[in-house]
Write a structure and sequence with these properties.
This protein is an alpha+beta fold. The protein is built from 19 helices and seven strands.
């Protein structure tokens, strides 16, 4: 709810804006297809549909077509959910917002139930921390993917945690959790896979686990180099392309297309064109950046003539918190060399001197609190032989990979703050693996006379 109010009154003039508005409005457009053609609706609900169907039914959507260019971050799943909710909400946004808030809350409850056995005391404090942690509270208070991600993760962890208990619904929870993560932010699931691998193979020996872990990290770096030679599922190329795409988002611009090319002009030059429904018409001869479908980068092309007409794709204001990230440039060694920069950016940003809204100061306070928690946990840590090595290396692996992916692909501070929010749940697992609750007391000790 807080996020909705900010998007409505702080970033806009009283109208809902941002991703929440796009997902909600696109869902309404998809829902309207049902009244015109139930067959087309169910085709789009369970399949992407052919290009002709999409153009005829969903040409007014903002985020549906973007998924064609981003197979690892499907906007269509959340749009489909909103379209289904529209049947009972009568297109009242509050109903959609309430559904997503309840979804994230259920995910947090499942996560809490999965870990409460690890906590001999401070259970109430942990529960309050989960539901009141600023970033979690903020980014799960509206119609965004983060709410679904928290729900999917909660289902998955709960199902895995109690998998040994014979119950078919635990298996159903695991399947549903995987399905939600795959259709929301699949890179979150990609980070979980190696983390679960270490959880399964490492034993209780602290020293031996570190040796095994170091060996597999080295093998992982070698695999990254080998994988960079692949034509398909090339991790390095994927990260490079995500970085290029997000650089364009950070810089802003107006994007349009024809049957062969994407075009881009600077946001400040938007007065050189006229928007005509789902199309744009150039008011004058205009120099644009262009790339053919399938190409990776835009390049400067010849000037497009006056009165040229193109299909409108998207419009993005330049981000106030945009900054330059060391480029990967399709070289896997750059990921390795710049990994400390990528990781520290996600861990520590925003900095006081960076541009941004007033919310950045709240994010800075939150970062300080996280580092303070880390300091306290290390101060009251268990002895090496008592540390839960499985949980420790599970959470360490996830945080390292998750932060590296976000840091390498995201040159906008505001987006970093949002994307790293779910990782707080993994930080809690990290803290639980090493903290010794027996050494902590909230009551002052009485001194003997």
């Amino acid at each position: 709810m807080i996020l909705t109010l900010i998007y409505t009154y702080y970033y806009s003039d009283g109208e809902l804006s941002g991703d929440t508005a796009h997902y909600f409005n696109d869902g309404k457009i998809l829902n309207q297809v049902f009244s015109e053609s139930p067959q087309d609706y169910f085709t789009l609900l369970f399949d992407s549909g052919d290009q002709g169907l999409v153009e005829s039914r969903l040409h007014d959507t903002e985020h549906w077509t973007r998924s064609e260019l981003d197979q690892f971050n499907d906007n269509r799943f959340i749009i489909r959910i909103n379209s289904l909710l529209s049947f009972i909400s009568l297109d009242v946004f509050f109903v959609h917002m309430l559904f997503f808030i309840m979804a994230s809350f259920l995910g947090l409850i499942l996560f809490y139930k999965s870990i409460e056995d690890f906590i001999p005391k401070f259970k109430k404090e942990l529960f309050l921390l989960l539901i009141l942690y600023p970033s979690l509270l903020f980014w799960t208070s509206s119609v965004l993917k983060e709410s679904l991600l928290i729900l999917g993760f909660g289902m998955l962890i709960y199902g895995i945690r109690f998998f040994s208990i014979k119950s078919s619904w635990k298996i159903i929870l695991i399947i549903l959790g995987l399905f939600i993560l795959m259709n929301t932010k699949i890179y979150f699931l990609f980070c979980l896979i190696p983390a679960l691998f270490f959880y399964l193979i490492l034993n209780s020996s602290w020293k031996r686990s570190w040796i095994t872990y170091s060996l597999f990290v080295f093998l992982g770096v070698l695999f990254l180099g080998w994988n960079s030679t692949f034509e398909k599922f090339n991790i390095t190329k994927y990260i490079s392309q995500k970085q290029r795409d997000f650089n364009l988002v950070g810089k802003g611009g107006v994007y349009f297309m024809d049957e062969q090319n994407f075009y881009r002009i600077e946001y400040k030059d938007q007065n050189t064109l006229i928007k005509d429904h789902a199309y744009v018409v150039l008011k004058e001869d205009t120099q644009v950046e262009v790339k053919k479908f399938g190409e990776l980068e835009y390049r400067i092309d010849s000037v497009l003539p006056k009165d040229s007409r193109f299909k409108f794709y998207s419009e993005q204001e330049p981000s106030l918190s945009y900054f330059k990230v060391p480029e990967v440039n399709d070289h896997w060694l750059n990921i390795v060399l710049y990994s400390p920069v990528y990781f520290s950016n996600v861990l520590l940003m925003p900095y006081p001197w960076q541009s941004g809204s007033i919310l950045k100061w709240l994010n800075m306070i939150e970062n300080v609190l996280l580092l303070l928690l880390l300091f306290l946990v290390l101060k009251y840590r268990k002895k090496a032989g008592e540390i839960d090595t499985k949980l420790f290396f599970f959470s360490l692996t996830f945080i390292l990979i998750f932060y590296l992916i976000i840091g390498a692909t995201t040159p906008v501070v505001g987006a970093i703050v949002r994307y790293k929010t779910p990782a707080f749940l993994i930080w809690i697992l990290f803290f639980l693996s090493i903290i010794d609750f027996k050494r902590i007391t909230l009551k002052p000790q009485k001194h003997k006379k």
